[in-house]
Amino acid sequence: MSALTPELSQRMDAYWRAANYLSVGQIYLFDNPLLKRPLAPTDIKHMLLGHWGTTPGQNFIYVHLNRIIKKYDLDMIYVSGPGHGGPAVVANTYLEGTYSEIYPNISQDEAGLQKLFLQFSFPGGIPSHASPETPGSIHEGGELGYSLSHSFGAVFDNPGLIVACVVGDGEAETGPLATAWHSNKFLDPVTDGAVLPILHLNGYKISNPTILARISREELEQLLRGYGWTPIFVEGDEPAPMHEAMATALDTAIDQIRQIQIDARKNGDTARPRWPMIVLKSPKGWTGPKVVDGLPVEGTFRAHQVPLHPNTIPEHLSLLEDWLRSYRAEELFDEQGRLKPELAGLAPEGHRRMGSNPHANGGMLMRDLRIPDFRDYAAAVATPGVIGIGDTHVLGPFLRDIAKLNQETRNFRVFGPDETLSNGLGALFEATHRQWDAETMLNDEFLARSGRVLDSMLSEHQCEGWLEGYLLTGRHGLFNCYEAFIHIIDSMFNQHAKWLKVTARLPWRRKIASLNYLLASHVWRQDHNGFTHQDPGFVDVVMNKKATVVRIYFPPDANCLLSVVDHCLRSRHYVNVIVAGKHPAPQWLSMDEAVKHCTKGIGIWQWASNDQEAEPDVVMACCGDVPTLETLAAVSIMREHLPHLKIRVVNVVDLMRLQPQSEHPHGLSDTDFDDLFTTNKPVVFAFHAYPWSIHRLTYRRTNHENIHVRGYKEEGTITTPFDMTVLNDLDRFHLVMDVIDRVPHAGEKGVYLKQQLKDKLIEHKRYIDLNGRDMPEVREWRWNSVT
Amino acid sequence: MSALTPELSQRMDAYWRAANYLSVGQIYLFDNPLLKRPLAPTDIKHMLLGHWGTTPGQNFIYVHLNRIIKKYDLDMIYVSGPGHGGPAVVANTYLEGTYSEIYPNISQDEAGLQKLFLQFSFPGGIPSHASPETPGSIHEGGELGYSLSHSFGAVFDNPGLIVACVVGDGEAETGPLATAWHSNKFLDPVTDGAVLPILHLNGYKISNPTILARISREELEQLLRGYGWTPIFVEGDEPAPMHEAMATALDTAIDQIRQIQIDARKNGDTARPRWPMIVLKSPKGWTGPKVVDGLPVEGTFRAHQVPLHPNTIPEHLSLLEDWLRSYRAEELFDEQGRLKPELAGLAPEGHRRMGSNPHANGGMLMRDLRIPDFRDYAAAVATPGVIGIGDTHVLGPFLRDIAKLNQETRNFRVFGPDETLSNGLGALFEATHRQWDAETMLNDEFLARSGRVLDSMLSEHQCEGWLEGYLLTGRHGLFNCYEAFIHIIDSMFNQHAKWLKVTARLPWRRKIASLNYLLASHVWRQDHNGFTHQDPGFVDVVMNKKATVVRIYFPPDANCLLSVVDHCLRSRHYVNVIVAGKHPAPQWLSMDEAVKHCTKGIGIWQWASNDQEAEPDVVMACCGDVPTLETLAAVSIMREHLPHLKIRVVNVVDLMRLQPQSEHPHGLSDTDFDDLFTTNKPVVFAFHAYPWSIHRLTYRRTNHENIHVRGYKEEGTITTPFDMTVLNDLDRFHLVMDVIDRVPHAGEKGVYLKQQLKDKLIEHKRYIDLNGRDMPEVREWRWNSVT
User: Fold this and answer.
1) Is residue B29 part of a domain?
2) CA–CA separation, A167 vs A162, rounded Å?
3) Of the N and C termini of chain B, which has fewer Cβ atoms inside 10 Å?
4) Do B607 and B677 fall within a single domain?
């Protein structure tokens, strides 16, 4: 029995031709969109940009997805993994009507067609990817590798949703994509939806073949089955049999998905499903020019970009006209340029159209989180300096209760690469589990088929990709990670920040929840991991992105951390970076003080300062938990030994407060900045990350030339926390010496103190220096005991 | 027939016990290294750090590798992929004698044993990974995911070498590792060596199970076969049968490797081999405590770090003593603490010992490249401003001839993620090929089984990992990449820079060739890729690393690019970042001028300046090809319209020249800086990357507050190259307006000119603004035609 009647097959082929026609039109045509007259050189854009190669295959997939959406009434969105699939997604959302609804100027008539064609890859127009401007897209795909992760993120907690994810065979060679296939071990068939990967094996990248197209069918099938999938192969280049094969494959896949869901949801089957996927092997540049200038094009790498160049090679003009006319637009569009009704009827309706599905404009579906009062989780701070249990350990119960309160709405998740416990968030497991669908064994902890935590895969790429997909479809979450290794996803962050920047300017795109990073296990406390685990530079990558979307916080203690996380979870359309400690460390502020301090984001700590009566002699600024500790220890030393010095302590929680108001919405006015940092007094600034970041933020400030910054300067190994600060000149002794060097007022007492501190540092080095003679002293070494 | 005689099996088991004993000793013992007296609390280190979990398995592997090295006289090195395998590699290199040769204080006697134990994860001691301090290591592995890529890099062009690469099953979940299995499609069995992956399936990460241990054996085998490998499984926990099984597996693997090499090298077999690999399934924390405090430890995630805590739980002391004594050290070491001769004899000798193999200290084997005179490749520059063919296109023939000249020594390779042609280096294919061992088809270009270019895999991670492995084993290379997507390997760069920093301080480590990045396809010329492909921030990541190892170059034209690349290929132990254009662009300097300019790294372009007779009114600084073009265009405008202005043009090739001398070895002295930039005149600085980087580098300079920087500020889309500069205020008109705003001397003429330029920009925006009414003007738009 055929999946398609001959009539339906022909209609679908016509629809496909329409999409292909619109795609070629986007790449080439300046005018004459319906070819009502012979193609003339003036009809061609001056600069030809775009990528034909992937387009016809994606058009083919789209029309077939439309069929099954209608047949099964599917709630489905489309993720375009291959690079530069823009023409296909734009063509199809135009054909289904969503494009013109969002952009009325691109109307469904000849004038609209002309604009549709012109705007593509044209100054002032639209990009060549499935960019934010494209209806139905949650995945621009300019950088390759994240389509599958985004798709899985989208279907978590969306049991009715299917994401059809086209994976390019070039993209499939990237590391992130290669491991993303394993996402199927983290999907709960009861409470999550399904991802239908369509591996598009068109055989070529920019100018190379692809690996997966050049291994045997047997190997490819083993690989995909080894990843846990059930592949269905569709292969060929003749349209008619390909339509039938694709329709059959999709029917089979949907049947299998539904059966898996019924088995799990109704029949109590708990075995991990082998979800179906499709391997579509079709020629690159399918239906395009077969031979150009004597060289084969269709089915080769030469079909990757723009196969014909009528502007520079006049003979190509007629080839282009032949190509365009091969789609027989006159059969597809009426005289006014409107898609004929019998074809238009092939598309789904309303929100079932993939360009109009609200999941792909996630802000439309987003509901606020239920968040308990974070003040209820406060650490008791009877007096500044009491030792806490580790700041993230205080945060844990707050996150646990958020997970609990939103258990029913299922719209909050915590992500991490096997580090959630290590990062001090174990309290989560009092209320929820790690979601895991592979085998479990007797001694496993906290694994379950369903749970709010996804941290059982050692892949920062997956955590980031899943979370992005989850947020883009209207939910909330947090990614906890070692500080150094968040650099692994620098480039993914870049792409997400760019997405946020562009979507914020599109009126029809609703805002989504912020992407929240909790970077625990930071540079200063890698006591047993050492140099490889020390890199606080992610904030520098983040600061390069648009000020409208990035926020960076360094809460100095647990109560501030609670306040900051509460704020970040309520915020929208930002990337929030929060750096926090997990080890027992001094606590400074009561909850009331913390709330006030975090609300301002920066402020004088009066209780630690003694300049109330006068101008300070020096400002001791600090940002980050360890720098704050060292700064306050330095202040203690100075207040004991140099009591005549007037010291002001300024703590920075919200790093962006340092920037000028003109550069960042959180930036302090110059007046406020000068009030805090003075206009002419020395500022000794202890900073968590690389010191020059502070200069980058403050170089326009009045007092900038007096700001002296200590921070991580790429020195470290496995050693004590205090020695880490010594190695980087951030320790209390260096900070005091920095003051003495800068404040003439320190006087002779200062000179004397400086010598004492130098001696202390030499003594410290002797303890640390491990050579034979010093062994007995090393034996007496006490961890973190220097005061 | 058994692989091992009972006697040999027992001796190997004893050797394994010795390694395990040394590993536990490293984690725990402060004193009493031979347990000559009962274990006392004072024998235990105060702070217990380290990771037991992976160690016994790696010790097991190492003793078995020793056997086959001796049996087959193998040239083999060891790559320790799992995290924190330090104790194992240190123990084994100590047992084989290499450790004491390099570190005579860690002698092969009781005193040496004590120091060996004490130094591990101890202040002033050594890290817990296979760090640079570890003999035989080319792979620290603090960050996970790169062991296989490094291993393949090491065996390229080393036909006699086998790298035994232990892959952790946690590490195997990372993206980079997941795609690295495909490296076998790029190995030439004739001219390259072999990688023997040993997937160590010990089942757990920090606190989670691993995916590959929780899928069925059938699925795992399919996966590995799908990746193109022939897996040999070794599974169990009883030492005796495991020794036999492992020995048999290794004999089989070596036989298969040799047969593959004979078939390819002698019998002319050109089929892609299915190389053997081993899957070793053994308990995590094997031979360690079985149950602690009532909870199972051996074979669970609880064995990951330190399983016993005698410092805080006194009952653990006797458990630790039992554990240590279970290895029966008295049978393994003599009274003086020296390994007994019948065991010592199991290790290979001389450079066959894996800790002493020169490939793992690549600088020992490194030979200088043969490099032709780069001046012979000069672009003719009759007059400044002539349009070139694209700077990287000029570089191509130079690289081609380097590939040719070093064809026989086979020690130079170019790496890229399918971008070598796109980046303008196609000339390489006149002399060599893309190395590729998968299927080829009729229309492929430049593919061959052997070639100097590895660019057929779309994975920046692979390019970076392969190149690192290639350099670390004493060869030379260059990685060409799109500028934006080099961020994908930020974290790998971080680790490599850290490795270079530490090894530079180790006298026994020889310097290696620099890691050279050529970032073409940069932010300003993403005409058809748009916003997703625009990110010049990699240099900010690079600048965070130690000044002793990082260098950054922005050659403004082709002759400068040639000079810079020549310099970088001759340099040692650096990371060099070179940013260059690939599109036809103006050329400024003759080869002689370029050499002089690049030697200084920064300088006044007298021919473009008119301040020869006097102090300048303004300094126009530029860095990068597009900013240089816009700056010179701005200067042209000013010299025409404001001829009374004295303008000095300063071009920066070597970005690090801007830093103070105290911060970077390339830094200009303050006097030299002031000579160039003046102490009080306005500086309008057009920079390739994010503008604040210039402030970060110059904030200590006298004239810093007059430096006004334009650069990329995260604005862009698909548009014309000129419009890209307009969007970011870096265009010639903005630069002139910046001068007029800052130089009172510009006078009324300046005010008038500014108004004219504003009008021009408005006119430009109108061309670019794509709405219906403006269509006719857009039609007339000429690409890059604004002057």
Assistant:
1) yes
2) 15
3) N
4) yes
Backbone angles phi, psi at B134, to 5 degrees: -85, 120
Mean pLDDT value across residues B426-445: 96
All residues at 6 or more sequence positions from A546 whose CB lies less than 8 Å from its CB, including other chains = A497, A501, B714
A280 in helix, strand or coil? strand
The token pair at B288 is 């360690």
Contact A215 B439 (CB under 8 A): yes
Q: Are B652 and B682 in contact (CB under 8 A)?
A: no
Q: What is the pLDDT of residues B679-730, one digit of tens each?
A: 999 999 999 999 999 999 999 999 999 999 999 999 998 888 888 999 999 9
Cα angle for residues A73, A75, A77 (degrees, 5° grid)? 130
Q: Residue A567: what are its φ and ψ, rounded to 5°?
A: -60, -45
Tokens representing residue B202 in the block: 């010990």
DSSP A416-450: -BS-TTTTT-GGGGGT--EE--S---TT--SEESS
- Cβ contacts of A503 within 8 Å, gap of 6 or more: A132, A509, A512, A573
Among the partner-chain residues A173, A527, A769, the one whose CB lies closest to the CB of B458 is A173
Which of chain A's residues have a Cβ under 8 Å away from the Cβ of B118? Answer: 770, 775, 778
Q: Which two tokens stand for residue B122?
A: 């101890």
Residue A772 has pLDDT above 80, yes or no: no
Which residues have C-beta within 8 Å of that of residue B762, sequence separation ≥ 6?
Answer: none
The interface predicted TM-score of the complex, written ipTM, equals: 0.97
How far apart, in whole angstroms, are the C-alpha atoms of residue B301 and residue A422? 13
Write the residue in B131, B300, B537 that is nearest to A443 by C-beta: B300
Phi, psi angle pair for B501, to nearest 5°: -60, -50
The radius of gyration of chain A from alpha carbons, rounded to an integer in Å, stands at 30
Query: Domain range holding B264?
Result: 6-346
Q: Do A612 and A571 share a structural domain?
A: no
> What are the phi and psi torsion angles at B782 (to 5°)?
-115, 130
Pull the structure tokens for residue B619. Answer: 């300094």
Distance between CA atoms of residues B627 and B408, nearest Å: 41
- Report the run of H or E that residue B281 belongs to, with start and end: strand B276-281
For residue A285, which of A25, A54, A20, A86 has the smallest C-alpha distance?
Answer: A54
Question: Whose CA is closest to B625, among B388, B438, B402, B446?
Answer: B388
- Going by the DSSP 8-state scheme, the letter that residue B432 receives in this structure is -
Convert B3-19 into a string of H (helix), E (strand) and C (coil).
Answer: CCCHHHHHHHHHHHHHH
Nearest CA in chain B to A724: B123
DSSP assigned state of A701: S
What CATH number should be reported for the domain holding residue A259?
Answer: 3.40.50.970
Residue A412: name the closest of A455, A368, A372 by CA: A368
Residues B719, A123: C-beta atoms closer than 8 Å: yes
- A366 belongs to a structural domain: no
B304 touches chain A (CB under 8 A): no
pLDDT digits (tens, 9 = 90+) for B206-250: 999 999 999 999 999 999 999 999 999 999 999 999 999 999 999
pLDDT for res A253:
98
Indicate the number of domains in chain B.
3
Phi–psi pair at B198, nearest 5 degrees: -120, 100
C-alpha dihedral, A314 to A320 to A322 to A326, nearest 10°: 180
In this structure, are A339 and A387 located in the same domain? no
Please check whether residues A242 and A326 belong to one and the same domain: yes
d(CA A403, CA A408): 9
Let me know: does A392 contact A522? Beta carbons within 8 Å.
Answer: no
**What's the maximum distance between 2 C-alpha atoms anywhere in chain A?**
99
Residues 208 to 237 of B: which have CB under 8 A from any A CB?
208-211, 214-215, 219-228
Window B:453-472, CB contacts with A under 8 Å: 455-462
Alpha carbon distance, N-terminus to C-terminus of chain A:
83
Q: Which residue of chain A comes nearest to B528, CA vs CA?
A: A49
